[in-house]
Amino acid sequence: MSQRAVEQFIGRLITDSDFRRRAAKNIALVCEEEGYKLSNAEIRILASLDYERLARTEEFWLDDGIKRFTVGSGKVL
């Protein structure tokens, strides 16, 4: 996988709470469902991230204008 794709994946982890919750439960399945072609080493590294810290980053540091809004999140689409 290219560095750009890894960066896109991490960016989505930060800005998309639904994606982050799904990835925290089963990152390999999420990669398959979403079309991310990660190596086993990349999956292992990304699985070891602190997902609670990523959630706090979204909650406290990101403006709502750059977050992904999902149905059922309580946020306006």
Detail the topology: elements first, then pairings.
Layout: H1 3-15, H2 17-34, H3 40-47, H4 51-61
Helix pairs in contact: 1-2, 2-4
Care to give the gist of this entry?
This protein has one domain.
Supply the key terms.
globular; mainly alpha; disordered C terminus; 77 residues
Structure notes:
This protein is mostly helical and 77 residues long. It contains 4 helices and no strands. α1 packs antiparallel against α2 (17-34) and α2 crosses α4 (51-61).
The count of helical stretches stands at 4
Unreliable stretches (pLDDT < 50, length at least 5) are 73-77
Helical percent range?
55-70%
Over all CA atoms, what is the radius of gyration? Answer: 12 Å
Class by alpha and beta content: mainly alpha
Strand content: under 5%
3D shape: globular
What is the mean pLDDT? Answer: 79
Q: How many structural units, i.e. domains?
A: 1
Q: How far is the N terminus from the C terminus?
A: 31 Å
Number of strands: 0
Order of helices and strands: HHHH
The major beta sheet can be summarized as: none
